[in-house]
Each structure stands twice: as C-alpha cells, then as structure tokens.
C-alpha cells in the first residue's frame, strides 16, 4: 500500500486516465523499485527509441530538478559554497536544486554513434548500461512494442550486473515484459496511443518520488 501522500498522486492519475486502472499495481511496483534505488543513493538509467527517446529525456528532466516542489540544497552544502566563493557560492546556494540521479541513455549522441559505427547497433544501450551502471541501480526501458532489440539487449546486460529492470510498454508487453522486475503494460496497441499514456504514468512516478524525497 502507498502512503496517503503518495496515493493521492496515483488517485489523480487514475481519475484522469481511467483506462490505467488495470495497471495500478504495475505502476506501484515500479515506484517501489525506484524508491529503493534512490533511497540507497543509486541511479536511474533510461532508454528508448524515437518518441520513447524523447520520453527518456523528459523523465530525466523531471527527476534532476524540481517538478512541482522546491528542492533547495542542504544548509551544509550552501555554507561550503559560500565559503569557497562569497559571490558565486551565495548565488548557487539559492539557485541549485537537488535531483534524483538519472541518465537518459538516448541523449549520449557522440558515444552512441561512435559505438554503432565502430562496433554494433543492437548493443548501444547495453554498452552504456555496462559503463554507467552499478549494482543497485535501475534500468528503465521504454518500448511501445516491447520488442525493441536494443532495449532487450540492455535489459540482459542490466540483469547480469544486478541492476533491476523496469519496462514501460504497450498491450501484450512483448519480450520486454518477461525480462523485467516490473513491467507497466498499458492497454493500447497503437504506438501514439501507447505514448500518450506513457507520459502521465512517468509524470505520476516523478510526482511520487518527489513527494517521497523532497
């Protein structure tokens, strides 16, 4: 069960998007994995293709700075910055915001194109999972079909590294659903409709995480 302050975000999601009532447990399971990751100072790695690549960057943006709530730095850090530089440190103490460490793998263009050109296209996200990932982190693969091969290869690498895997996909779940610790399988089959539901789901996850940690 979610705490009441977290559950209100889920209730709002389900009130606005009734079609998602059937995946409430899947969303909750994904949230719990993310909560545990960030509680132990882990990081989230996200990847997708096309529109899902944009979603990976969008979600990272919501987690790395404020979404709705202020996230001021700690007083200890603020004082250290002021001691180092009375002018810039003072300003930084007011404008910096705490984040939840998230890396959108789809945004690493130079690394991605170099690897695809020199080595292989299917392993491009798996290579990044190997480089960035550590035990206790989480890999979130976004694939509307659930069958995007570069996402599946990354999921295999993640599991081998003891990195938990969350999938965000569409009806049926594809191969990805079976490869995940938690899979959110939205009940749509058309790509654009699946993507339209992915956005409010990861917004809800971001809201709950922000509520929990800030």
Structure, explained:
This protein is α/β, with parallel strands linked by helices and 214 residues long. It is built from 10 helices and 5 strands; from the N terminus they run H-H-E-H-H-H-E-H-H-E-H-E-H-E-H. The protein has helices at 4-16, 24-39, 51-64, 75-84, 88-95, 109-118, 124-132, 149-160, 174-178, 191-213, and strands spanning 44-48, 102-104, 138-142, 164-169, 182-185. It has a 5-stranded parallel beta sheet with strand order 2-1-3-4-5, sandwiched between helices. Helix 9 (174-178) links the parallel strand 4 and strand 5 (182-185). Helix 4 packs antiparallel against helix 5 (88-95).
How would you write the strand order of the largest sheet?
Answer: 2-1-3-4-5
Record field, number of beta strands: 5
The assigned structural class equals: alpha/beta
| Overall mean confidence score, pLDDT | 97
Protein name: SIS domain-containing protein
InterPro entries: GmhA/DiaA (IPR035461), SIS_dom (IPR001347), SIS_dom_sf (IPR046348), SIS_GmhA/DiaA_subfam (IPR050099)
GO molecular function, one term: carbohydrate derivative binding
Pfam families: SIS_2 (PF13580)
Key structural traits:
globular; alpha/beta; 5-stranded parallel sheet; 214 residues
Q: What order do the helices and strands come in, and which of them pair?
A:
Blueprint: H1 4-16, H2 24-39, E1 44-48, H3 51-64, H4 75-84, H5 88-95, E2 102-104, H6 109-118, H7 124-132, E3 138-142, H8 149-160, E4 164-169, H9 174-178, E5 182-185, H10 191-213
Parallel strand pairs: 1-2, 1-3, 3-4, 4-5
Helix pairs in contact: 1-10, 2-10, 3-10, 4-5, 7-8
